[in-house]
Amino acid sequence: MSAFLLTPPASEPLMLDEAKQFLRVEHDDDNALIASLIVAARTQVETAARCALVAQTWRFVCDAWPVEGRIVLKRGPLFSVAAARVFDGENESVAIDVDQFVIDRASAVIAFPPWALPHPGRRAAGIEIDVVLGFGEAAAQVPEPLRQAVRLLLTHWYENRGLGGETGGNVPAGFGALLAHYRPVSL
Q: Cα-flanking dihedrals φ and ψ of residue 96, to 5°?
């Protein structure tokens, strides 16, 4: 199953003023740089933790419905299923009522009765499911350890810009520990 981002978050887990205060930057000369580092740090935290921080829409694509009637997303937290469609043999999409899905937010699982859903008519990428992932719409809804991980990366990259190589590329101590509780566990 492949996935790609449809709609990025409308806001970041850390606002520019908050980031500047944390960095102890009192001028506006680096505003664009700091804003871009916030986006990069959020993206790095999301990748490392395999979770979306602020609400964003993703499309998951699969070839066929799993026979066990469960789609386990490799990212979370699952907020809602926004849309679903199946493609027939002529590559026409057929919308599926999202009320047929049962959402397990804690496990980022979409459950459904596989016998009640139409089967795709094409062999590859026959099913698309659009989901909203994230802890909520606002920065305040993002758990504080994940916001702190964004701050750590932001600070590390801001203070080590221009150095490149090993010094600028490493993540700060404690970064992994802040993310550990939020990574999905595979059994």
A: -115, 135
Distance of CA 132 to CAs 16, 42, 100, Å?
Answer: 25, 17, 17
Domains of the chain: 2-53+138-180 (1.10.3230), 56-133 (no CATH)
How crowded is the C-beta side of 43, counted as CA atoms within 13 Å? 8
Q: What is the DSSP letter of 13?
A: S
Q: How many CA atoms lie within 13 A of 178 on its CB side?
A: 21
Side-chain half-sphere exposure of 142, counting CA atoms within 13 A: 30
Q: Measure Cα distances from 24 to 11, 158, 166, 167 in Å.
A: 22, 11, 25, 21
For 49-103, the pLDDT digits (tens) are 999 999 999 999 999 999 999 999 988 899 999 999 999 988 999 999 999 999 9
The residue whose two tokens read 């859903």 is 117
Q: How far is Cα 82 from Cα 59, in angstroms, rounded to an integer?
A: 10
pLDDT tens column, 22-42: 999 999 999 999 999 999 999
3-state SS track over 99-132: HHCEEECCCCEEECCHHHCCCCCCCCCCEEEEEE
Q: Which residue has the tokens 């010094």?
A: 167
